[in-house]
Specification:
Helix content is 77%, strand content 0%. The protein is globular. By secondary structure, the chain is mainly α. Helix 1 packs antiparallel against helix 11. The chain contains 20 helices and no strands.
Length: 437
Amino acid sequence: MTTPAPGPVRPAATARPQDARRSLVAGSVGNFIEWYEFGIYGYFATVIAAQFFTPEGGSEVEGLVRAYASFALAFFFRPVGAAVFGRFGDRVGRRPALVLVVCLMTGATAMIGLLPTYASIGAAAPWLLTVLRILQGLSAGGEFGGAVSVMTESAPPGRRGLYGAWQSFTVALGLLAGAAVAVVLASVLTPSQLHGWGWRVPFLLTLPLGLVALRLRLRLPPDAPPALAPEGRPRPRPRSGETVRAVVLGVGRMMGWSAAGYTFLVVLPSYLQSTLGASFQRALLGTVLANLGFAASILPAGRLSDRIGRRTVMVAGALLVAVLALPLLHLVQDPDGQAYVKGAALFAAGACVGLMAGPGPAMLAEMFPARVRCTGLGLAYALSNAVFAGCAGLIITEVVERTGNVDVPGYYAAATCAVSVAALLTLRGDDHERALR
């Protein structure tokens, strides 16, 4: 199966430099908030499990599994959000869609910080948390398609990979910001304070961040409905079969990035605590190192893909994860291993994922014409994340608990990346040189 041919190469329409930069910042900031929130939920998964999913006398592992089930459920609403907000963005415009999703995302996240716990209201607590997670999933599903469309459509010629890479770079920044807040709180608060009220602080911090993002997005230049060509004529509607095939292929190209990224960048703290017995602080430090490696490789990978193509860079990243996931995990598991060796292994794991994440947004944008770009790339990303990222914590925790095999994260990341290699090899070598359709 191949991507629909993008047609002849033609000069790309370019935005004014100031508008391009404004689109880059406004597109990135909402994504930063989204991944900051998803990061802190993952980092505080054990605390959230105790507050919302573990009745008195319940198993800690069972509570963690329920917390990850809520985590996964939010991901399965991402495709719904991608379809709803993506269609809105493709019909009405990118800016109105981005304004709506950042409002929904900010409100739902801040409300989590105000929720009463299981000890206060009983079984209603996990249900309320799950409803807010669903709202976050809807907003996150709409965020990616709109933001990547704005960023890649406004990119100067020859820099689409770099501009799209900023979307992935803000993933790393959001996760690192969440880890930093978690580390500070874990350092200055006692365990009882952290479990009592400290875990609420990171969620409440989303409110001022969201107001900044809203202001930036309201300042975006108005955009014409993507369903219309610049001269005002309706753009031809692509055949639905072509769009569906492109979405399915996009999911295959994304699955390794989704699975390996969540395994090494989000699920890792809970895995290190529940499986290897690491302290909360050490687990977060390991996650910070993995995210630093991720952040360090994203922008260079995006820029390199503008020169040598998306296929070469992304296949290299997927192959490296497929080959190195288990050896790197064994270095982390070694009880007699040196701290700097474990840190280097985590940094390398994150850097390998970054090779896929850097060119990934531009690769997806190049698969769809303007009339369905927001919906198509948003659906491909959301479906991949729903299945292979949202379920990562649930799958890993449950399988390790049932089998006792602590290598499960490595197998999971390696297997999904191996499948992605096959899908990525169908990319055209010159996609990065072609104008967006």
